[in-house]
Amino acid sequence: MSLGIVFHAISALAYALMGAGHTRRLLRDGNAEQVGQTARMCLLGALALQAVALYLSLQQDGQLFIGWALALSAAVWLGLVVYWIEGFFIRLDGLQLLLIPAGFLTTLLAALFPQGFIVPHAGNTWLRAHLVISLAAYGLITIAALQAMLMSLLDRHLRQHEAADARRGLLALVLDAQPPLLVQERLLFRLIGVGFVVLTLAMITGSVASMELIHRVLPFDHKTVFTVLSWVTFGGLLAGRHLRGWRGQQALRWTLTGFVFLILAYTGSRFVLEVILHRGLT
């Protein structure tokens, strides 16, 4: 068993313990204020453990190793880091109640499914830059998609507030603890804007690396097609926001559609090849 698997398992345990503690305090106190104040350093510790796990998993015998679960773990880790930094400027205590389970799930998957492949031509500077920037784009857009799903749930919860108050189940308590929708909408479009810029850089560096390695700007394959579709979707969403003031459910649908395209560009195909078909790409 590699150290990367061990540290991913330890990270999953850390996230699970944090999630259990948050849930217990939320059920006892009925609010997320104490959760946010006491968990910030604990979350930083869990992120540090996951960073070690990713470093040990991605670097194997001096070569770059990657798989679908590792890519997902790295993407969510980057998104959680963005959230942790954003928490200095916007009060986002309640979001921990939903982001920590995402950290738990992805680290657990990375520990259970360590399959992957050695990246060919990893010594190429442009290719390495492309991989790093792509993971950053995946991370930002993954968190944006989670943010969009949360906003959809919160909007439905607010429309059915009386029924939710009558039940007062765990989900109602979690949704009550979330920041206002307007705050979350600003955060969502900030994430999408930065993610779109980073995704554009990923496409540019990928094109340069492709020219150097195979003498083609963009290879016509499923990864390129779905990446371009995702880029067009997010570009259209930002244009619609700027020109026509898109918001609400319309913006959420575009966000989730772009996210699905991006997942299909890499993680979905990699999952099918490595887990279902037991194959790797070269």
Radius of gyration, whole Å: 19 Å
By DSSP, the count of extended strands is 3
Can you count the helices? 10
Mass-distribution shape: flat
Low-confidence stretches: 163-167, 268-282
What is the first-to-last residue Cα distance?
24 Å
- Name the helix and strand elements from N-terminus to C-terminus, one letter apiece: HHEEHHEHHHHHH
How much helical structure, as a percent, in the residues?
over 70%
Task: Please characterize this protein's 3D structure.
By secondary structure, the chain is mainly alpha-helical. The protein is 79% helix and 3% strand. The chain is built from 10 helices and 3 strands. A 3-stranded antiparallel sheet has the order 1-2-3. Helix 1 (3-29) runs antiparallel to helix 2 (33-58) and helix 1 (3-29) packs antiparallel against helix 4.
Task: Itemize the secondary structure elements and their pairings.
Elements: H1 3-29, H2 33-58, E1 59-60, E2 63-66, H3 68-86, H4 96-112, E3 117-118, H5 125-159, H6 161-167, H7 170-176, H8 181-214, H9 222-244, H10 248-276
Antiparallel strand pairs: 1-2, 2-3
Helix pairs in contact: 1-2, 1-4, 2-3, 3-4, 3-5, 3-10, 5-8, 5-10, 8-9, 9-10
Q: What's this entry about, in short?
A:
With about 280 residues, the protein is an all-alpha fold.
Features:
single chain; 282 residues; mainly alpha; three-stranded antiparallel sheet; 10 helices; flat; disordered C terminus
